[in-house]
Specification:
Blueprint: H1 3-23, E1 27-35, E2 38-46, E3 49-58, H2 72-88, E4 96-105, E5 111-117
Parallel strand pairs: 3-4
Antiparallel strand pairs: 1-2, 2-3, 4-5
Amino acid sequence: MNPQNNLTLGRLGEEFAKDFLRQIGYRIIESNFHKRAGELDIVAIHRKTLVFIEVKCRTNDEYGNPEEAITPWKMRTLVRSAQYYKLRHPDTPDAMRIDVISIVLGPDEKPFSIKHFENVSGF
């Protein structure tokens, strides 16, 4: 898959993830927050907790399950980005966590499966 298709796939996955999160009571406050060393796909509030959601989307399992793409390096980048976000937005809840949404799309470009992993960082 070329980089442009990866970008399109990522954006499509993020839209499915936001719909899923809204259905289970998350309030989305920002998408695609960028800083020099990283990006936060979705920032939300759920039950008085500031939640940073990393979305991984695939069309098949040729390279493993989507959630397997969260490497230790990626996790460190997410934690740093989340801490920076909190510094820039001190009015948000003090409790924070990082979640992962793993999406596999079917041939019709609709979600075949959506998995939600809560508090993957332990911070």
